[in-house]
Design a protein that fits this description.
Layout lengths: L17 H32 L2 H8 L4 H16 L2 H25 L4 H30 L4 H30 L1 H22 L16 H14 L3 H20 L1 H7 L9 H26 L2 H21 L3 H29 L5 H29 L2 H21 L9 H8 L1
Helix pairs in contact: 1-2, 1-5, 1-6, 1-7, 2-5, 3-5, 3-8, 3-14, 4-5, 4-7, 5-14, 6-7, 6-11, 6-13, 8-14, 9-13, 9-14, 9-15, 11-13, 12-13, 12-15, 14-15
């Protein structure tokens, strides 16, 4: 697995970029607020209905809108002002969240209202994400994308690890409905920071001639992704990675209870989730460094292979001594593959296609997560969680083999491709 033949001494530091620092702060604030909603929304629906089904429907709000609107959002973000799209999305999410404590104060809050808010937040995220994918390269430049993505992921992971415990205390004191008002306020603050960070964000010029339709734009993005030597295999290998990840994370509580003997009310269950988060944090720190030393293909192939071995450790573990380090390594490997794919897509996609290509790729990759979760749930119901995790090992192992046989092994150097994008 070859070394990348590119100098890095002249790469600019993202930390000297004021616009990026504002953008990073905005995303961190939004993630911290979202950690409150992640707990408060399903809790509120369960309090109102007592229905596990209604509660589970609430949690699908983060994924379903991406599958429904991803194509259109990506095309629209590439043909309009990305700054305006991001600010509008933040405003809509804030309004949706603030409507919950308002309805609660009036005594008219219903479960359907809360579920609609969850779906609305997920929808707003799709549009924000589509615009943000294209905005980041404009803010930091292509050479600084690995470092910028690493910083964004690190900050998000730190928030994911640290905020939920505090959010639980806040929800216990003021109730879930009013806690959602905190998330609504966080979107207002995030929008103000985004506005400052993107004040000079240029609108990507389009080629002359008749303006194409949204459908034409969608087709153009799909065609670019399908024909690209590196981005096509990275995207579809990501589907295999997310299949395994969906299986592992959806059954983590069941795995902890039945295979590791962890008590439901004890601190060990939180330690297991922390191990997964720490693996993601380590990946965010290491991916920019790996990207400066190794080829793109080598990183992905090694990540899938390492993840498979670590997942075998998770499978055979019968206690926390082996399970915790295996989960850390598995999470690190899975996240490395994800971040490597995101960074390469942003570097190799022309500015005018950023929204379309990145949302399409994320739709394909995220599509594996619910399928993996449902499939693993069926296997565990019919047999046990060990059988479900064995299926995840097979899935990730096949992904590693396909990665080794793909163009990633021989065409993992992006230097020439970057030059073509620059032209």
């Amino acid at each position: 697995m070859g070394q990348r033949e590119s100098a890095t001494a002249s790469e600019p530091s993202v930390w000297r970029n004021t616009s990026f620092r504002l953008f990073l702060t905005a995303r961190t604030v939004a993630v911290a607020g979202a950690a409150v909603s992640t707990i408060a929304l399903p809790l509120l629906v369960y309090d109102l209905t007592g229905s596990p089904l209604a509660t589970s429907i609430t949690t699908t709000g983060a994924v379903a809108p991406y599958l429904l609107f991803g194509f259109v959002a990506g095309a629209v973000a590439d043909r309009t002002n990305r700054r305006a799209v991001m600010l509008t999305a933040q405003a809509c999410a804030s309004a949706a969240l603030l409507s919950v404590p308002g309805a609660s104060a009036l005594g008219s809050l219903a479960a359907a209202h809360v579920i609609a808010v969850a779906f609305g937040i997920g929808t707003a995220f799709v549009w924000f994400d589509a615009a943000a994918f294209g905005a980041l390269p404009q803010i930091v430049g292509r050479s600084a994308l690995p470092a910028a993505n690493g910083a964004l992921w690190t900050a998000s992971t730190v928030a994911d690890v640290s905020v939920p415990a505090v959010a639980g205390l806040v929800i216990g004191v003021i109730g879930p409905a009013w806690a959602l008002g905190i998330d609504g306020a966080s979107y207002v603050l995030a929008a103000a920071l985004i506005a400052a960070a993107t004040r000079r964000l240029p609108v990507v010029p389009r080629a002359g001639g008749p303006k194409p339709t949204v459908l034409t734009d969608i087709r153009e993005g799909l065609s670019f992704l399908r024909r690209h030597t590196l981005l096509c295999p990275l995207t579809f290998l990501g589907f295999g990675n997310s299949l395994a990840q969906g299986a592992v994370t959806s059954l983590l509580v069941v795995y902890a209870r039945t295979q590791l003997g962890v008590e439901a009310e004890g601190p060990a269950l939180g330690v297991i989730w922390t191990a997964v988060a720490l693996g993601g944090l380590a990946a965010a720190v290491s991916v920019p460094r790996l990207g400066r030393r190794y080829r793109v293909g080598a990183i992905s192939i090694a990540a899938y292979a390492t993840g498979t071995v670590a997942l075998v450790g998770v499978l055979v573990a019968d206690g926390l001594t082996l399970a915790l380090p295996a989960l850390v390594v598995y999470s690190w490997a899975a996240t490395c593959a994800i971040l490597n794919g995101i960074g390469v897509r942003q570097q190799l996609t022309p500015d005018r296609l950023q929204g379309r290509v990145n949302t399409t790729a994320r739709m394909i990759a995220w599509g594996g997560t619910p399928l993996g979760a449902v499939g693993a749930g069926v296997i565990a119901q019919m047999s046990d969680v060990r059988s479900a995790y064995a299926a995840a090992v097979v899935c990730l192992g096949v992904t590693a083999v396909v990665a080794w046989c793909s163009p990633l092994r021989t065409h993992g150097d992006i230097s020439r491709l970057l030059a073509e994008v620059a032209e």
